[in-house]
Amino acid sequence: MAAWNTEDIPDLSGRVAVVTGANSGIGYATARELARRGATVVLACRSERRGTEAGDRMAAEVPGADVTFARLDLADLASVREFAAGLPYDRLDLLVNNAGVMALPYGTTADGFEQQFGINHLGHFALAGLLLPALLRTPGARVITVSSWMHAVSNVDLTDLNSERRYHRWLAYGRSKTANLLFTHELSRRLAAQGSDVVAAAAHPGYADTNLQTAGPRMTGRRLTETLMRTGNRFFARSAPSGALPTLYAATAPGVRPDSFTGPPLVGVSPAPARRAPWTVDDRMGRLLWEASERLTGVVYDVPKA
């Protein structure tokens, strides 16, 4: 893969993009660069205050940026449905499933799902399914899902998707990131079977400086761990803009293959093909997780013949 940076992003005028979790970190950097290239960008965030503040900051950094805030709480399927129903565009060129939580203490979403699986996977699964009609009628549309190298920790456990028998915060996180890749794999397979040109691909930022690392320790009062995470972010992590490059590449570079997985290189910053665990390209696991996700969310995908 040749050297690539944000200057290589093509003109996106007339394109519509939705970026979840766009109020900070990688999501903010992703949305800002899409807007800088002319896209109309919807900042899909849980907090209205943080989302509108992010929009104001983005507009100041990118004069003329076409950005709007719309509330989306991935931990509440009613909010996901409301967001999808209220999107005021006939087309959708790009859906970036970026928002996520990491290594939180055990908790459940509004619908009773373990929160890492519920937010990182099920919320985005429902969102993409509800927005699929707009994606299908937009030539060259893409669905980019942000996973993590931590997916290599574990495959999903189809018999305990909500970690009801046993919960370990990092194991649950890794499984949710595997679910992201299995979703991408199965969506790609279903789109290809129907002759659709919508591209489903995945990316990961590597070790990037975001608030993901500190949220869990802060919630449980582990101040030393929070301090160590902040220190690690400061001295060892990639910046959020650097961490966003694989997502931006997958979202905008020509010739991105369906079911590809892009990450940072070992040296440098240009995005590169990322290694993935073999279980993330398992057709049977992809199908079974898909069927479970449709059952749990009530969102059934309809991919007609192109």
Automatic annotation (TrEMBL):
Keyword terms, alphabetized: Oxidoreductase
InterPro entries given in the database record: NAD(P)-bd_dom_sf, SDR_fam
UniProt xrefs under Pfam families: adh_short (PF00106)
CDD domains: retinol-DH_like_SDR_c_like
NCBIfam families membership: PRK06197.1
Family: Belongs to the short-chain dehydrogenases/reductases (SDR) family.
Protein name from the UniProt record: Oxidoreductase
Organism classification: Bacteria, Bacillati, Actinomycetota, Actinomycetes, Kitasatosporales
